[in-house]
Specification:
Length: 403
């Protein structure tokens, strides 16, 4: 009898007891709005901003309604306006081109490498050909590019970098947290990210002028002094007149649920990474038949998901792999679908974006698979998943493909 895994790939960890208590406290006061707090008192949302800025090592944090809103406000604050080209990796999630589109920008898609990070040669080429002044760098599925090199390229070319850290909360490049390399770090606290408030976003920056703009745009109704991290007054002098209110605030209930999770985040990061390592170590034995995108030297990746590819396999073969794994309780997603499919949508599906030739990225996505690694899984669960993955992938390797 083939072994079968019976855990759920979409069930989140329980929320800390302290989240339940904090949420209850907020509910009893009915003070759900972030600017509802007694004079001189910081609201749950403001306290979350302080705590997240301290954890992230950034001067400022602004709590928002979603990760997508964090990206939009960041792009607006760095000056993207209608018609501007904005560079981004071709391999990312739909809210990324969506955010560029929402601010009137034109996504310029940059190729990725087989390690799923932005291709620096293509980045140079596209900076030159598009004249773009902003790079929205999406650390898709937790894979960090050479951020030292990108910082150099960006400053040489006069390009402002905004980091999409939806999958890299807790990841580091040469010991420094992702999100601290560009003008802004954009984080999501949507249920399937590293902290869970259903929906939510956190925007970080060290630049007081940018922080002031984003705070006004987030919809502060001039309550900006009640935020958790507040730039000096001079930075608001023009911002209060120049920046429109775009109502993207977080509320106290979500912040209350998040604060206790932040206290556990470092442990969660270790937990995910240990689980992913167990699975990837087994899969590594199937190399070169199975390719595993590797973190670059200097990158610490959080293992909340794993990726692998089966180079050269046909779409029918890839779908058979997904089906056979599902039959044994292991849920993987495939990025090669012709139609948009869950979170695996890709650039060909974004018809609002001008069609662009990305042969290298297409070739990678055609045989790329993705698996979530929930913290609920124990290490034994991970060993069983690894065993099933290896058996199924081996079965599909030996049958081979007509070249
Ligand atoms: C989830 C996600 C976002 C946006 O986050 P939301 O909070 O869902 O708006 C942005 N980028 C990537 C790569 C994501 O996975």
């Amino acid at each position: 009898m083939n072994k079968r895994f019976s855990g759920s790939f979409t069930q989140q960890s329980d929320l800390p007891e302290a989240s339940h208590r904090a949420a209850e406290r907020v509910l009893r006061t009915a003070a759900l709005h972030r600017y509802q707090s007694d004079e001189g008192q910081l609201s749950e949302t403001a306290l979350l901003e302080q705590a997240f800025a301290a954890w992230q090592g950034s001067a400022f944090c602004i709590a928002l309604a979603s990760g997508g809103q964090a990206i939009q406000l960041a792009l607006r604050a760095v000056g993207v306006t209608a018609g501007d080209p904005v560079l981004t990796n071709a391999f990312t999630l739909a809210p990324v081109p969506g955010a560029i589109w929402a601010v009137g920008g034109k996504p310029v898609l940059v190729e990725i490498t087989k390690d799923l990070v932005i291709d620096l040669d293509d980045l140079w080429a596209k900076i030159a050909s598009s004249g773009a002044k902003v790079l929205l760098l999406s650390h898709m599925r937790g894979h960090l590019p050479d951020l030292t090199e990108i910082t150099k390229i960006a400053s040489a070319a006069g390009v402002t970098v905004v980091e999409d850290c939806a999958h890299t909360m807790g990841a580091t490049w040469r010991g420094q947290k992702s999100g601290n390399f560009g003008a802004f770090g954009c984080f999501s606290t949507q249920t399937y990210k590293h902290m869970n408030s259903g929906e939510g976003g956190l925007l970080t920056t060290d630049d007081p002028a940018l922080a002031a703009k984003a705070m006004i745009m987030s919809g502060s109704y001039m309550n900006y002094t009640r935020h958790g991290t507040v730039p000096d007054p001079e930075h608001f002098a023009d911002a209060i007149y120049d920046c429109p209110n775009m109502s993207a605030r977080m509320d106290n209930l979500r912040a209350a649920v998040l604060r206790p999770q932040l206290a556990q985040l470092d442990d969660a990061v270790i937990g995910w990474t240990r689980r992913a390592e167990i699975i990837l170590r087994s899969l590594g034995q199937l190399s070169p038949d199975v390719h595993i995108p590797m973190p670059l030297d200097g990158a610490f990746r959080v293992g909340s998901s794993i990726q692998f590819s089966l180079p050269g396999r046909t779409p029918a073969r890839c779908q058979a792999v997904v089906r056979d794994l599902a039959a044994r309780g292991v849920e993987v997603k495939w990025f090669g679908h012709v139609e948009p499919h869950g979170f695996t949508s890709q650039h060909r599906h974004w018809r609002y974006v001008q069609a662009q030739a990305l042969p290298q990225t297409d070739d990678i996505l055609r045989s790329l698979f993705d698996m979530r690694v929930p913290l609920r899984f124990g290490e034994d669960d991970c060993r069983l998943i690894a065993e099933i993955l290896c058996e199924v992938l081996q079965a599909h390797a030996t049958t081979g493909e007509a070249a």
